Amino acid sequence: MSHLFRNGLLGAAALLATTALVPAFPAYATTQGQLDSFANAFGYKLTVVPDAAGTSFDTRLDLTLPKTLPDSGWALYFGSVAAIDVRKVVSGPFDLTHVNGDNYRLTPKAGAALKGGATYAVVMAGASRSEYLAMPNAYIAVEGLTPRIIAATRPVFDPASKLEALPFVTPFTDEKTAKSGPADATEWLTPERAFVLNASRAVTQARPEIVILPTPVSAKHLEGKVLNLAAGIRLSLTGLTPADITVALAASHLRQAAGGVPVSITVNGKGAAESYHLLAQDDKIVITAADAAGAAYALESLSQQAAFEHNRLKPIEITDAPRFGFRGLHIDVARNFHSKAFILSTLDRMAEYKLNRLHLHLGDDEGWRLAIKGLPELTDIGGHRCHDLKEDTCLMPQLGAGPQGNPTVDGYLTRADYIEIVRAATARHIEVIPSFDMPGHSRAAVRSMEARYRRLMAEGKPEAANEFRLQDPDDTTVYDSIQHYNDNTLNVCIPSTYHFIETVIDDIRAMHDEAGTPLKIYHIGADETAGAWTNSPACQALVKAKGLDPAHMTPYFITEVSQILGRKGLEPAGWSDGMGHVKPEEMPKAVQSNSWGGLFAGGVAEAYRHANRGWDVVMSTPEVLYFDMPYAPDPKERGMDWASRGIDVFKVFAFMPENLPANATVMTDIQNHGRTIADSEPLAAGRRITGMQAQLWSEGVRTDGIAEYLFYPRVLAMAERAWHTGAWEPAYVSGKSYTYGDGQVNDAQLRADWQGFSDRLTPRLAELDRDGVQYRLPAPGARITGGIFEANLAYADLAIQYRPKGGKWTTYTGAVEVRGPVDTRSVAPDGRRYSRIVTVR
């Protein structure tokens, strides 16, 4: 999932060092205090520069050495999620070594004479397209001393926007950096271009009188007098218990009172799951729901509308049911940890937006985040990162974690934490789906169990040491995973691997049972497995004994684990690339496939192929639903960009999950070209997509606040599409193809629906303000034409402020005459937070 640096060797000797090599200052015996001073004074600057041919870009790391240098040998460790070809680095007096994953080590060459106070350049082929893809917290290590972060590489936070900034990254100024090559048509979304784009999507129409999100199937105001909900409501329940709606009531704007408006809620088991009917008229409210979830959703809808009408509710009738039974969010807490408080807060938001699945990604290469009974090393070691080359006490730092670990990126959920999360989810009618990615993406587990092995062998307990070992010690296979690890894959041919997996699954089941909610689905992961095991004697023996295909051992593993899950009464789930290679007849009857193939890269055919197998297919499309991607192609928008250069709220809103080829009409590919999507493997009669899930991978998500910025408000658009079918969505026709701009999606209907959604966003953003959620505020579109400044927003009815350079902020009320450059920003409904500032000239 990493953006890969382009290969290429820089030949410009002038970029090597700004100061010639001369003998170093007199050496001294390095102490901890001196190392601390060295790290604090060390200069570190990352700049994107043209390559030697002037046709592409490279990354130059400028290192300014303090005037006093350590006596002892020192090493600089830094992270890069983009692969660096160390053979093609122009490094002057330094050697660059790839440690593992995103971890690199820079050391002075033997005999190199470094000069204190000098600046040296290390030039690496290729460059990122965002100022936020660099990893912070580079550090200096000297043997025998505590490593220290280079102070210049620490992130800072802007008090106005609350956004993280990386001061060691030189701001990008050349728009050519937006392109991956000559054929790339991507342009930065400048304020001027954003203004035109925003205006093209806006529609002049009456503001909606019903503001419920996601949109109900049917909602209409009726004749009659208003219901005074300021006096509260008085509940009567049939077919459900107060516990079924306790959380929904507590989160609502409604309060119970003996003299309040009578509200009767009946669960009758009729109709579609999670459906409800609400009639508010004649001084009473009658709710009929298919189940307890439907009853809770009815109260959420009532609360949203009542708050909008200031508790003077006009008579209203709502008939509602979800589009999909699976409406999920995926949170990666493995790469960088996210707190229990963040997860619980996310559950609150999910309940408000009628989402019902939380997929917790708990284990990956960079971390194992759930305590498992009897295997303390998984979290004692796999849950923490520090500078331990042997990894006896922790994993080596990855993703900018720093040498002592960091409480915002390290940690794990205790059993009590997880049980609390499951109970909280159940109270909100949300199912928790745990996931530990296997057999690849498993380095944290592998290294933790190797540490366990070494400990028990040292204690003279070889049988116990081997019980949960995940590697064949005689395996000499050399491989490189997609995230550049050489030791991150479970050995699928040894019994201890499956014993380990069953132990983990059984303990998670026990936690769910203790929480009072049985485990139903377990997500295997099963994606992006490296070419491992070729030289594993255990695998060679298994292949020979069972007549297996040595090139297809990952499907063997997936099938074996799926059968284990099936015997336990659990539905196996996995990412579509791995699941696609198994033999369906060898799998359990119920299987879930998360479709993450690209829309323009065969993902449509793959999704329909898996649906035709009778599997539950949950659309997890990267170009639309990977919320770790940036909102826009702008160097100041954070996010990975391998799948999309920009996923704005409109793009999520316009996604058509049940007619996948139709997305070609309204979306371009990653290089901003319009293309055709052919329905090459049509859905069979009676088959359909069964759900949607938005993903937040956490390689660059180092705080809960960054996670919130990337999630919201895109989650609301995702919830809208997962619950409600737009009138503008063309019905699926088997075999029908679509091409960008072909007019087969009703543009006028789409824009009108979008405008209504945008108008209804503002109350939801105000709720996020109330709950302290650091959602993304849209940077204004703006332009100056003939000295007249104009501004608009991509979504929501928010205040816009502007100022001349060096002037005071003024609220924008319409086109205004200005002189010179103008800064502009949007303002949160509560006035306490601002978007990033953009400047027009």
TrEMBL record:
Top-level taxon in the UniProt lineage: Bacteria
Signal peptide: 1-29
Gene3D superfamilies tied to this protein: 2.60.40.290, Chitobiase/beta-hexosaminidase domain 2-like (3.30.379.10), Glycosidases (3.20.20.80), Immunoglobulins (2.60.40.10)
Single biological process term from Gene Ontology: glycosaminoglycan metabolic process
GO cellular component: membrane
E.C. code: 3.2.1.52
Catalytic reaction(s) noted: Hydrolysis of terminal non-reducing N-acetyl-D-hexosamine residues in N-acetyl-beta-D-hexosaminides
Active site: 528
Molecular function (Gene Ontology), one example: beta-N-acetylhexosaminidase activity
Coiled coil: none
UniProt xrefs under Pfam families: CHB_HEX (PF03173), CHB_HEX_C (PF03174), Glyco_hydro_20 (PF00728), Glyco_hydro_20b (PF02838)
Segments forming domain Chitobiase/beta-hexosaminidases N-terminal: 40-193
Keywords, alphabetical: Glycosidase, Hydrolase, Signal
Enzyme class (EC, first level): hydrolase
Family, similarity comment: Belongs to the glycosyl hydrolase 20 family.
PANTHER family: BETA-HEXOSAMINIDASE, BETA-N-ACETYLHEXOSAMINIDASE
Name of the protein: beta-N-acetylhexosaminidase
Provenance organism: Asticcacaulis benevestitus DSM 16100 = ATCC BAA-896
